[in-house]
Fold this protein.
Amino acid sequence: MAGIRKLPSVLVDRIAAGEVVERPASVVKELVENSIDAGATHVIVETQAGGMQSILIRDNGSGIPFDELPLAVERHATSKIESLDDLEHILSYGFRGEALAAISSVSYLEIRSTHAGADTGGLLRARGGTIEEHRIDAPTEGTGIHVQELFYTTPARRKFLKSERSEDTAIHKELLRLAFAAPELHLEYYRDGKPIFNLPSDNDLRSRIATVYGPDFAARLLYVEERRDALVLTGFIGDDRSYRSQADRQFTTVNRRPVEIRHLPFFVRKAYGELIPEGGKPIFFLNLEVDSTRLDVNVHPTKKEVRLTDEALLHGLIMAACQRALFPDTPLPFLRGKSDDESRYVTDEPGSQGSSPFLSADSSGGFPSSYQPGSPSQADRTAAFREQLREGASPAPLLYPVDELLSAGMSVREERAYPVRPPETTAKRSFVPIRHFGVIFGTYILAEGENEFYLIDQHTAHERINFEKKRRELEARRFQRQILLHPIALDYDAQEAEQILSQQERLLQAGFVLEELGPGQLVLREAPDFLEPGEEKELVEHAIERLSGGEDLVRVYDEYAAMKACKASVKKNDILSPEIISGILRQLGECEQPSRCPHGRPTVLRFTRAELDRLFLRTGFGKQIDASSE
Ligand SMILES: Nc1ncnc2c1ncn2[C@@H]1O[C@H](COP(=O)(O)OP(=O)(O)OP(=O)(O)O)[C@@H](O)[C@H]1O
Ligand SMILES: [Mg+2]
């Protein structure tokens, strides 16, 4: 083997270039970022053959002074920062002075630029990092950068690239990331001469999302905003029923810079809990404002990913933001989309209408005469029902007066309704059942409210009740630590034990006292006193895992309460007496958040009277009854 030698600088540059420009998409990203840094409001991107043959980017930014063109392609030459101090407060995308040097060392590069105010433009051509031409040129608007034959100097890298198609996909994604980071930027993208998108300047993120994915998609997003310490998270997440099979609509920015945030997708996924199925990928467009001193920007040479110095804080912030948006305290409206409604209609064959008791084509709008809108007897009866219910009369009246149904040509089985005692104050409550009619399919309780009816999942509803009860108990007792009669040995290896011990302070706050007997030999000496005997090991292992993963204490207790709640709750197919059902409904009505179980599944579906009337084409009827009973 030959002796140790210093590498020639050309080779050094090429090796470094490989880190900055991995593939055509990274070239596109670096160049558009430069345009934005130069104050451009309009950028046009054109690529050929997956960007491997040609990438041309033109902007209307401030341009590069003629004399500085050679410097722009030199390594570590930048106009953006001057000192280490600046590095701590970076506002521009670029700061390393690496990108153009890297790109030029592995391609054929041409820059045409006119500095704002100058009456002549400049041209610079470089091949494989060596400047071949630098001259005055006709003035242009802003800067145009043309990169050709990417990686021609490094054939190995070129071979490593994927198909044109996958390079195109990567470029597309990179441009979208920038488009969402800078909604006000007018961005055009042409691929092999064909227009792919032309995004006009948008006012804000939601309108940019609507431009890209359509207004329906954008309308279903939930706005989030949450702050903790110096972190501010804002943006949009998919609603409780939106997810994708691929993580293709996940976009993050930090201080408006498109970067990935380590662990963020994982935290968001966790916040959705059971709302989306295993393998489902949530949708999010999030920006994190954070003092750059709390960021480790340089973790990745292409500035693709940042890491927060305090990840536990980030975790708490995301959970809080997402859960506040996902679990507002209202029962789910059952019918949302318009198309959904329409698909429920059964259209009768022409001519068969007259034979249906519900769709006679007479002048009363197709309804049996006894249901005539505004018929005083009906209105009075409705009012009387309500009166009775308010007084808690028991048993409650039938769902519909049988004689009326019979005279309308309908046969009914007599069904009993059971009253539900309303909670003390019904003001501001979103779930106020008045009576119920038992359980269907061994699972769903059917109940009626003032102007709506509900389907309640008996298991998740009971879980919510037990969860809030358990949580109140925990809060009230402000637990004490108790010394365990028999210390409990925990099973961790030396590495894990070390990690856990570094979190000892937090664990102590949570009521756990650990002791290390030898390397990797941890025992639990003291535990919170609310634990029931036999539970310590399960809970402590759970708590340790969650707390050392950065979870906050309150949440760990919530999880504990949820675990307990699930075990203590009635299950599907458990047969419940009407009194128990009434009790469940009343207590659910008193819950702080009645609409979800602690794992995030719905507890209540609500059908409003207006929705039903609409479905049965009774809109006018419903309105008049309401009006006459007021
Ligand atoms: N489109 C542009 N318009 C105006 N000036 C530009 C443009 N592109 C590059 N420049 C100038 O060239 C310099 C070098 O660009 P380059 O991308 O290599 O480095 P940088 O942006 O400073 O840092 P980084 O390597 O982190 O991107 C920039 O600092 C800027 O002054
Ligand atoms: Mg740059």
Notes: Residues 205-326 form a domain with the Ribosomal Protein S5; domain 2 fold (CATH 3.30.230.10). The pocket of magnesium ion (ligand 2) is lined by residues 30, 33-34, 94, 99 (CB under 6 Å). The two ends are 98 Å apart (CA to CA). Confidence is low (pLDDT under 50) at residues 332-414, 621-630.
